[in-house]
């Protein structure tokens, strides 16, 4: 019984949050990796793109809510999501037309692009705060649960409760669908293949008559979709605050790099590696250990490896450890 | 067909192509020879839009094509192969060939959803075409193999195969025979001649193998140090003093003269 309780506690505080957070990071990292693979630069504005996408979706959600439209048990935000994606796609395509295209025609090296994206990041950062304000926003239609802790306890008779939020369930399901679709798209459709071709060998793709501007356009649209979905899922799960999204940039990049920049499979793996490391290392294992160990060995402290204040340091450490042993990331990076 | 006028390409201060002027007649197989570093590949790169020229003009059938990007030139019927074979390494050989006619209707997001039928038809035609080309090049057994894993010579064949996937007007082949065995080289030579006769391709062929050049090319253009030295039949070129000098340096020139009895 104690062992079961320990497992439930672990699921409740580590496994379920880890899977949800991992899915969100994976979606974010996929966007970063797509840009790296095709446009060949590290896009520092990605966190704020996610914030913009989430913000656009939130505004539409509020509008829908004010009209009394809802999706029943599912969050209204899912209905607003396509609109959010559309707005974000317009923003990214506009940014590309006005800013990135110039550097592309100049054939600027990736470092220049990186610095430019830093500028874009600050602009988007300001834009989002200007429109929706820097504070916390709630847009989930109240907390909803697939499994409630109290009901779970009553139902199983265990002393530990297990809570599974609707937002976590939706995160995982959406992530699975999106990833499956993306892989189908990249591997099976002509558009996806031309993107992979462009990523693999740009010169050859051009000399085969593939229009680079079209590939770039499609990439930005996909990135807009990925970023908005990641941003909305994160917001539904943990609440929306612009600054948090800016901070997300670190674990997202860590995920993309750990997995191997430019490799979609790597981005997903990296997302989960980073998420689980972060959650496990900052979790206080006191409760779990109390269940497992004999009474005489019960821990007196929290048995927390690192305070949650330092959670962003975890990304760094994992990044360094992986790159020390596999400089190209877990999966070989660079080609889609 | 193609007229190159006073083309200059500088890399830093170094003139890789230094005022080259030449013209390629429609329907010919023109050989382009010259010592290593003569600027042949760079000339191709500039014509095919990989590099933009420092100065000079390129026209194709009277139309100015200087500095046009490669994918636009492709759609005008100007193709090239790479000296160091390029491939989409994670795709199979067949998929590599099928990528070639870029700008298919399947390359828009819209058609990915709403043009399924048309895309499927296009794909089927492309697939048949690709298989035909693979068979022609005697590498049909490689159709399902990843292009990143095939041998260097086989990659060269794949390069040639690309140019056969569409109806090109002019094809620039950069040492398509390097690293390919003699029998296959002859097959390639025959293929070039046949494409030239049957499908009206104009070719410009860079090659170091003089037998190969002599067998299929007329006229031959010789470049050295970024300039065009001479143009004519291979025998004329071989007899040209400047050409011999460029290839061998002045020291060796006399020795060769003795040997050939000139
Ligand atoms: N991208 C580049 N940057 C700098 N220099 C270059 C570049 N490409 C070519 N060059 C230089 O231009 C010169 C001509 O090179 P090119 O490749 O055109 O010679 P080539 O005639 O094709 O020789 P080969 O027969 O060996 O292939 C060389 O000296 C080379 O170093
Ligand atoms: Mg060369």
Question: How would you classify the helix and strand content of chain A by structural class?
Answer: mainly alpha
What would you call the structural class of chain B? alpha/beta
- The DSSP helix count of chain A reads 13
Count of strand segments of chain B: 10
In spatial order, strands of the major sheet of chain B run: 6-7-8-3-9-10
Name the biggest interface. A-B, 25 and 35 residues
| Weakly predicted, low-confidence segments of chain A | none
Order of helices and strands of chain B: EEEHEEHEHHHHEHEHEEHH
Q: Could you explain how this protein is built, in words?
A:
The complex is a heterodimer of chains A (336) and B (262). Chain A is an all-alpha fold and 336 residues long. Chain A has a single domain (2-325), classed as ABC transporter involved in vitamin B12 uptake, BtuC (Orthogonal Bundle). Chain A is built from 13 helices and two strands. In chain A, strands 1-2 form a two-stranded antiparallel ribbon. Chain B has a domain at 2-88 and 166-260: 3-Layer(aba) Sandwich (Rossmann fold), CATH 3.40.50. Chain B has helices spanning 40-47, 70-75, 93-98, 109-114, 116-136, 152-163, 182-198, 210-216, 234-239, 241-260, and strands at 2-11, 14-24, 29-33, 55-60, 63-64, 78-80, 170-174, 202-206, 220-224, 227-232. In chain B, strands 6-7-8-3-9-10 form a six-stranded mixed β-sheet, sandwiched between helices. In chain B, strands 2-1-4-5 form a four-stranded antiparallel β-sheet, with helices on one face. In chain B, β1 (2-11) and β2 (14-24) form a beta hairpin. Chain B starts with a strand and ends with a helix. The chains are: A mainly alpha (336), B alpha/beta (262). The A-B interface holds A 185, 189-191, 193-194, 196-197, 200-201, 203-212, 214, 218, 221, 335-336 and B 48-50, 69-71, 74-75, 79-80, 82, 86-91, 95, 99-104, 106-109, 111-112, 119, 122-123, 162, 166. Magnesium ion (MG) is lined by residues 40-41, 83, 174 of chain B. Magnesium ion binds at residues 40-41, 83, 174 of chain B.
